[in-house]
Specification:
Chain lengths: 94, 470
């Protein structure tokens, strides 16, 4: 199995990362070499069901542990753009 | 020979050494040497250092001092300290100030340690040489033309040149042990779940562990005792009843060596010679060396380079340029994700995100991610079985000594292959340590890696201390 240029374009869209046409040939060649290496695993036999079943969720009690607003200011101070206590983003559609 | 933590502690306690003098003397070394080596990305604020010095003095005065009280320590820059910069050596977090303390930081502060500086690393801990840092490479203190290793290269180098007695790094596939080996210091990767990951920037969440660097096994053990422990903030943290479980038997003094795995293409001749000499010394001091075979060890690197990028691609989805970090406005909000992430992430980080997206994508998920998890489970069983017969597994830490700066940057797969001996411990979740084992003809350090059974750090410390004396 090896990765194609079309697949690279597709996954870069999914990953929200642009690859310029200058970068593309090297990125594709590097990824092909890596994918070729890890493909040794394709032939492994077995089922993941038993592994999935051996895992369990770790949860805590669903109780409120914070006072509303006690971390709002410090967290918002890291946001690139805020207005009236809200994080401001670009328009979703244009 | 540099003083051990216990020796420094005794001097601080008796008053022959003051905390102020100790901190100043290490700062002086950093000022003299870091310009050349570049192990550090910055010092913590004067107010943080001053408040910890005050606290340390109080602890000595009221008799509550720990072995780390008054001891300067450096943290890898992916560990959060409230109110201080934490960049992950990435442009995307260049101006990020942490909003809370990591659990290890809380523990260090309570112990009275002096948090001194932030260590350089590969961007988001992805790499084996610190060449992927957005802020420049960390040079090897033994040879400035060589890399310090990575990803915790800064944490290893600063201890090696004497800028602090101990430091913290993180290890996802060898990122503590390999730079420890390259810089001639001791580095410990703990059992998965032993040290809390709360406040560590997530890379591969099922693999990541924070761990210490030091000049001796004893120093590393002292830091380990303070940073390990159950933490409610980390859902994978081991509960008290699950830690340090010792099956009553004494150490058998048996060391397993996976010969077929070690004797491979690409391993340096001097590394093999040094490894065999080390085994010979252990044999003479009463250890039994036993050849072992672990069938799925050969596939460990592939498993790692599937599971790790898969987790990376999920974990790094959080960097969206909206809530924190670098932000580049785009035409629409989805375009601003692209702009911010493309501008903020370096090449290796982008490559791993893309690789992770690929192995998790519809159509390839079964062939890669699922298969990797099957092998991971088989390998885990194989390790459990092997540790019924041996105390530790020994391998060289790295197949090569520190390589040249720029030597492997053009070929990512070649860089990945250097992780061959360190990734198994992360996949299986067991503890492993790298201990200096001599130097090459040209004076570059070698590292010996011991891997022990789940939660058996005590075995690593016992055998490690024996090994240091040889």
């Amino acid at each position: 199995m090896s990765i194609t240029l079309e697949e690279l374009d597709n996954i870069s869209t999914l990953a929200r990362i642009d690859i310029t046409s200058v970068e593309k040939p090297k990125m594709l060649a590097d990824m092909q070499a890596i994918v070729e290496y890890i493909s040794e695993i394709n032939s492994v036999k077995g089922s993941v069901d038993t592994i999935i079943n051996s895992h369990h969720n770790i949860t805590r009690e669903d109780v409120v542990t914070h006072t509303t607003g006690d971390t709002t200011e410090v967290l918002l101070s890291e946001a690139p753009s805020i207005e009236n206590g809200y994080v401001k983003v670009e328009q979703v559609f244009k | 020979m540099q003083k051990t933590l216990k020796q420094l502690h005794e001097e601080l306690k008796s008053g022959t050494l003051t905390v102020d003098d100790l901190v100043s003397s290490y700062k002086k070394v950093i000022n003299e040497k870091d310009g050349e080596i570049h192990a550090l990305l910055g010092m913590y604020s004067d107010s943080l250092v001053a408040s910890q010095i005050t606290k340390a003095k109080e602890m000595f005065a009221n008799g509550t001092a720990t072995v780390l009280t008054g001891i300067p320590i450096v943290l890898k820059d992916n560990i959060l300290v409230k109110g201080e910069y934490a960049t992950g050596a990435s442009k995307i977090l260049e101006n990020y100030v942490a909003t809370y303390d990591a659990t290890v930081v809380t523990r260090l502060k309570e112990a009275g340690a002096i948090l001194l500086a932030r260590a350089n690393m590969d961007e988001f801990a992805m790499g084996g040489s610190t060449e992927n840092s957005a802020f420049g490479v960390t040079k090897n203190p033994y040879d400035l033309t060589k890399v310090s290793g990575g990803s915790s290269g800064g944490s290893a180098a600063v201890v090696a040149y004497g800028g602090v007695p101990v430091s913290l790094g993180s290890d996802t596939g060898g990122s503590i042990r390999q730079p420890a080996s390259f810089c001639g210091v001791v580095g410990l990767k703990t059992t998965y779940g032993d040290v809390s990951r709360y406040g560590l920037m997530a890379m591969g969440s099922s693999l990541d562990q924070i761990g210490p660097f030091g000049k001796s096994v004893e120093d590393v053990e002292e830091v380990y005792k303070i940073i390990s422990g159950y933490d409610v903030h980390d859902s994978t943290s081991l509960k008290d009843g699950e830690r340090g479980i010792k099956n009553e038997e004494q150490i058998k003094k048996v060391i397993g060596v996976p010969r077929d795995f070690i004797n491979r293409d690409g391993i340096d001749k001097e590394v093999i010679t040094n490894f065999n000499e080390s085994l010979e010394k252990l044999k003479k001091s009463g250890y039994l060396i036993k050849d072992i075979t672990i069938p799925n060890l050969e596939k460990a690197l592939s498993v790692y380079y599937i599971i790790m990028p898969a987790e990376v691609s999920s974990n790094l989805a959080r960097y969206d340029g909206i809530r924190y970090g670098l932000s580049r406005g785009g035409e629409t909000s989805i375009r601003s994700y692209f702009e911010s992430r493309t501008a903020g992430f370096g090449e290796e980080v982008r490559r791993r995100i893309l690789l992770g997206t690929y192995v998790l994508s519809s159509g390839y998920y079964d062939a890669y991610y699922n298969k990797a998890n099957i092998v991971r489970a088989m390998l885990t069983e194989e390790f459990v079985k092997i540790f019924k017969d041996v105390d530790v597994i020994a391998t060289p830490t790295s197949p090569v000594p520190a390589f040249g700066i720029g030597e492997k940057t053009k070929d990512p797969l070649a860089m990945y292959l250097a992780d061959i001996f360190t990734v198994p411990a992360n996949i299986v979740g067991v503890p492993a340590i790298s201990i200096p084992s001599g130097k090459t003809e040209k004076g570059l350090p070698f590292g010996m890696q011991f891997t022990a059974a789940h939660t058996r750090e005590d075995v690593l410390f016992t055998i490690g201390k024996d090994f240091e004396k040889l």
